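Data availability (excerpt). The following record was deposited with the supplementary files.
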Amino acid sequence: MSVVPTPSPPTITLARLVELARRKESPAVSIHLPIDRRHPDDRHEHDTLDRLLDRARELLRDPHHDIDRLLAPARDAHARRVICEHGAGLAFFLGPGSSAEIAVGNHLEPLLVVSDRFQVAQLLPSVDRSIGGHVLSLDVDHVRLHHIGGAALHECQVADLPRSVDEALWFERTERHSGSHSEGVGSRGTVLRRSHGSGVQHEDRKARIERFLHLVDHAVLHHVGDDRSHPVVVAGTGPVVSRYRALTRHPWTVALEVGSPVRLPDDQLRRRVAEAVASQDSVDEMLERLGARLGTGLASTDPVEILVAASQGAVAALLVGSVAPWWADWPSSTEPLEGDGTGAVDLVNLAVSDALRTHATVHLVPAERLPAGPLAAIFRY
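Predicted structure:
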């Protein structure tokens, strides 16, 4: 007897969620529909979608809106006998320019929101968090960047990535060499030179390495681009790895102390990276960073500070303890309001969509692990 495999719960890619978060349309209609697979038909789902569509028509009463055209994708789904084959929920994102229908693996509460942005926060539990990212092999005389693709590493060709301190700061060596003059002739006819300035041997090596690491970080971030949702594994000696992680602007780095990476064969590097990523709990790391920065101005659990910082692109990482809507009369107040959110703003969705829009990482964490409230943030500056 053949066994029909159970389909995997539907997931949404982070890139798709970011795309929806960045779209600002008026009106932007979001419909969340729970799906209960225990029943042989979708009669209950049809009734729920009916009510949500009727409510949408009430809120969209405006001669400038082509309501029938705007709601057509959801109405077409309503006409199907089975609204959604798989998944625990179905979300519609309807705007004048385009529309999307997305099946998700997590349960959704029935919801209709008409706003100028889409309601994306409640889809966070279904985001595909499969590990990707990059590996930065880092030493003062050896720099390489690899992309993590499944079980393999693929070297990236990055034009502006310096390969060593000397390559990155070659101009400083040239300037130093030009700051010397002849002082006389030695006993064997050699020219004696006196050097002005401290020279390489007297230079503050720490400051020189710092400048080098900033150049490396600039090249890595330029190559990674908008995707800051996957880790950069930094492989090298303890001091260099630690210093790079302290100054990088990438919000998620994983330390991998391997000694000098130039001595590590690629197959061993792949194995060590796989072990590091498999054991890496990004939530633990983010909570540790949050705890260390609270009280310094570089992190907060205050909703007003978080919302303002997210709107300005100052949030590096947003930690979300609950995706349940937090309706409030924002920006006048953050006090929770009762009801279906008509005329109010969901502060959780506002923070999440602004964080995604400005390339911050967004992590779901158990609510009890946050110091206070459903939101916490680590700031870029």
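Summary of structural features: The CA atoms of residues 24 and 117 lie 5 Å apart.
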